[in-house]
Amino acid sequence: MRLLVLSDAPEAGKSLLPALEFLDHSVASAALAPDLALGSDPPDLVLVDATRNLSGASHTCRGLSNHEECPPVVVVVAEAALAALKRSWGFDDWMLPTAQPAEVETRLRLAADRPEVEDRRHGVELGDLVIDEDTYVVRLRGWPLDLTFREFELLKYLARHPNRVFTRSQLLQEVWGYDYYGGTRTVDVHIRRLRAKLGAEHAALISTVRGVGYKLDPHGPRGEGASAPSSRA
């Protein structure tokens, strides 16, 4: 298997994951970069070093997830930093740098063999709501919505977990990232703007759960009599 290690450490390669010395894989290395070009012959799997630069690893993973043909991504993270990992980074699996050869081999194989149907890069479709991650276009009953980047990410995250309730703090961590230092009030502001752009007949797609937070309810709108969503910016 051809592995690409992305790290800010000099000569990372197999030193990031010592178990690789005992496994039969070719290993190349490059620096952390959110706009990394994988070329016409990408590796079978990418290892992202999150043991030194968590912010850089997060941005790199998010950037890689925007590549339609990106291979699976595995984050290598120190145990002390596990709490910083968020699924919104867009990685497929994670492992500790101290993982033993048998565990590393198994995790790499399972990540590389993950079926295409689990690919996270194409989008979400819930009834009349269609979110295309490749083009960053959201359509509701066929009408495009004019959303900002953060509004798009927030709606996409809620739509990927329909009927699941998230607190404001959870949404702030998952959508804005662990390194965002603003208050939870910004979540309320973005929810209000999203509802306005969904239009009066569809605003109920995003429900408020008193004392907890928000959820996306696919059955929230009234349905047949709904009008076109608002086109306001």
Protein described:
- It is built from 6 helices and 12 strands.
- The protein has 2 domains: 2-118, Response regulator (Rossmann fold, 3-Layer(aba) Sandwich), CATH 3.40.50.2300; 123-216, Winged helix-like DNA-binding domain superfamily/Winged helix DNA-binding domain (Arc Repressor Mutant, subunit A, Orthogonal Bundle), CATH 1.10.10.
- The chain is 27% helix and 20% strand.
- The strands form 3 sheets. A 5-stranded parallel sheet has the order 2-1-3-4-5, with helices on both faces. The chain has a 4-stranded antiparallel sheet with strand order 6-7-8-9, covered by helices on one side.
- Mean pLDDT is 84; it is low at 115-121 and 221-228.
- The protein is elongated and about 60 Å long.
Q: Assign the CATH class of the largest domain.
A: Alpha Beta
Architecture per CATH nomenclature, i.e. the level-2 architecture of the largest domain: 3-Layer(aba) Sandwich
User: In angstroms, what separates the terminal alpha carbons?
Assistant: 47 Å
Tell the overall outline.
Answer: elongated
Order of helices and strands: EHEEHEEHEEEEHEHHEE
CATH homologous superfamily identity of the largest domain: Response regulator
- Count of individual domains: 2
Helix/strand-derived category reads: alpha/beta
- What's the average pLDDT? 84
Helix content: 25-40%
The count of helical stretches stands at 6
Strand content: 15-25%
Rg, rounded, reads: 20 Å
What is the third-level CATH name, the topology of the largest domain? Rossmann fold
Q: Which sequence of strands runs across the widest sheet?
A: 2-1-3-4-5
Write down how many β-strands occur, each being a DSSP E stretch of 2 or more residues. Answer: 12
Q: Unreliable runs, pLDDT <50, ≥5 residues?
A: 115-121, 221-228
Largest sheet: 5 strands, parallel
